[in-house]
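Section handout, structural biology tutorial.
Before the tutorial, make sure you can parse a SMILES string by hand: atoms, branches in parentheses, ring closures as digits. In the record below the ligand is pyridoxal-5'-phosphate, and the chain has 367 residues. In the tutorial you will relate the predicted structure tokens back to the input. Do not try to memorize them.
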Amino acid sequence: MDERIAQMAHHRISGLSAGDPVALPITPASTYLIPGMPVERHQYGRWTNPGWDALEEALGILEDATVVTFPSGMAAIAAVLLPNLHSGDKVLLPSDGYYTTRAIAENYLAPNGIEVQLCDTVEYINQDFTGFNLVWIETPSNPKLEICDLGIVIEKVHAAGAIAVVDNTTLSPLGQRPFDFGADVVVSADTKSIGGHSDVLFGHIASRNEVLITKALDWRKLVGATPGPFEAWQVHRSLDTFEVRYSRMCESAGLIAGRFEEHPAIESVRYPGLESHPQHDIAKRQLLRFGSVMGVTFASEELAEQFISNAEYVIPSTSFGGTHTSAERRARWGDAVVPGYVRLSIGVEPTEELWKSFERSLAGLAG
Ligand SMILES: *Cc1c(COP(=O)(O)O)cnc(C)c1O
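Predicted structure of the complex:
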């Protein structure tokens, strides 16, 4: 992995000529000079952009697959679901995964004759995939961080003749590598840890299957789900620090999750790196890192809200994977979790300072 990260950082720069800018230029072009027959790589802004190319090459090195970028995680997800499912097909989605993926299925797949079925992430292992065309997997699931065994599940999906798609947003390519377990497509909301600064919406798909890549490229070109040149530049820039940020975040999260577990003001902690996680054994085999996100359960909604508002380094906001630690009660969005369940995303703040702020906040609750 380290080799890939280093290569990613130097890939574009190694191809520069004397006098070229070391930093990636932004190309806000809708149209390009194409005299005569159009043979140039860049012709029109809905089809290509030099910034997308640079970003897709860099992300491709990280993923070890071909990458197509999109203006948000949902745009990437739509670019997999819609071109690959047709009337009469059957799709399986996680009942406990990212809600908006199910909403796309309910709004645009089911009404067009595609059968949509749901399954809990932990039950994928027992699911019969016969008759399905596409199986959507999200592990760890968001927000409950349930985990399923990718190797076993994907083998069963393939035996049934279906495509296996993994939403790898929660752990990122640094934390989990679905292609090692046979995934056909990986989707990522780069809005989270890859973008990482809470200032850009972005997404990508990755695949080693040329047919699936071509479908995603055609989809982007035809429906116009195109990333903005500036946003592509922001994500490209974020890649330079991605591994450093993510390392700090995961290390802090592991340490803090362990300390939370011992703390009397907290009912329970859900984190893949803890032995108490129900699928910790799978996590140990499957994950490269245990991630920066954890679930922390308090006895009540009030205690959870107090914890969030009293911790001086916690931003009360949705989303995760940013440089700043953030938290929210997921029940406020209607997720199937208890009212005191807080999804906590650990940022890059110095670990012990962050811990001290949590300790002060928790001490306030006990009083
Ligand atoms: C945030 C998220 C998405 C959607 O990404 P957007 O950039 O908000 O469109 C999809 N899947 C998962 C698991 C996410 O966390």
